[in-house]
Amino acid sequence: MMQKFTQEMKSLMNDTIRDIHTVLPGRIISFDPDKCEAVVLPYAKFRKPNGKIMDFPQISEVPVYIMQGCGQTATVVYPIRPNDDCILLFSEQALDVWRTNASSDTELKFDLQNAMAIVGLFVKPNILMKEACDDDSLIVEKDGERLRLKKGETYISDTAGQSITMTPSSTTMVVNNLVIKSKGNIDITAAGN
Hints:
Elements: H1 2-18, E1 23-32, E2 37-42, E3 45-47, E4 53-55, E5 59-63, E6 67-69, E7 74-76, E8 85-90, H2 96-100, E9 115-119, H3 128-135, E10 137-142, E11 145-150, E12 153-157, E13 163-166, E14 171-174
């Protein structure tokens, strides 16, 4: 009798836990930059009560995390494309209150419909990470165009081999065709030759 009760409790707990979601990796299917929402497919499978294993469904209207602050006056944005990987976080309460400022009667805790995505999780490492750690720098790169910031140096370069390096004591420009445009006066002072 006790063994049967214990087994029933385990089954009930497993059925309940099966519908609680916390964090999953996912893949962006589509992204709407006007709404900052994505359709995301979790990289996961679930087991139905009958034992059949199925893929998770696509989740729509997933808010995507964008690095920003100061009332959205300080922002770092980048393109989000289909097949970008992400982390899906599942809220312990319905997102209705946050999204619309309206109260919600929904009791969907940790539900798939309360997912939020952080884009940037990838299986393979990004080679820039080692350089940033070795250099103690912040690197922003897009298709070979680069900005690198580290204490005492700002470096900007492009794929044509042009660059600007600025330090507290000097500025070095390597450019193919230097054009300096100015409205009004311009002074160029050189120390030495």
